[in-house]
Amino acid sequence: MVLERIDVLLGGAAPVPELERTLTDGYATALALEGERLRIERRMDAVAAAIDTNPEGADQLSALAERRARIDDELNHLRARLGLLNQRTRELRAAMPPVPQPGFS
Questions:
Q1: Higher per-residue confidence, 100 vs 52
Q2: pLDDT band for position 104 (cuts 50, 70, 90)
Q3: How far apart are CA 14 and CA 6, in angstroms?
Q4: Burial state string for 73-99 with b = 16 or more CB within 10 A and e = fewer than 16
Q5: What is the pTM (predicted TM-score) of this model?
Q6: Do residues 13 and 62 make contact, with C-beta atoms less than 8 angstroms apart?
Q7: Domain boundaries, given as residue ranges, for the chain
């Protein structure tokens, strides 16, 4: 979902606050994916440690490895798109006129 929002924003004109909100949501999504990846790796370690007593361990490891690979792909794609959105946001911020400060002449 956040990737779709990023793609829409990269394809058109959007106000900086909307870009910043989407960046925040995207970074939160990336953190959640990283957390899921860590949970999968811990589960893989536990399954591998008990593989001698678990006849289904090899199948479980295979399934977990596939899930981890899908998450890695999604995370890499998300990071690349976030990088582009971050660049676009910085460019738009730099092009904005300075905000006058009250009380200064």
A1: 52
A2: low
A3: 11
A4: ebbeebeebbeebeebbeeeeeeeeee
A5: 0.84
A6: no
A7: 19-93
Handedness of CA 37, 42, 48, 54 (dihedral sign): negative
Helix 57-95 vs helix 16-49: crossing angle, to nearest 10: 160
Alpha-carbon distance 50 to 55, whole Å?
9
| pLDDT tens per residue, range 8-30 | 999 988 999 999 999 999 999 99
Interatomic CA distance for residues 19 and 25, integer angstroms: 10
d(CA 6, CA 30): 13
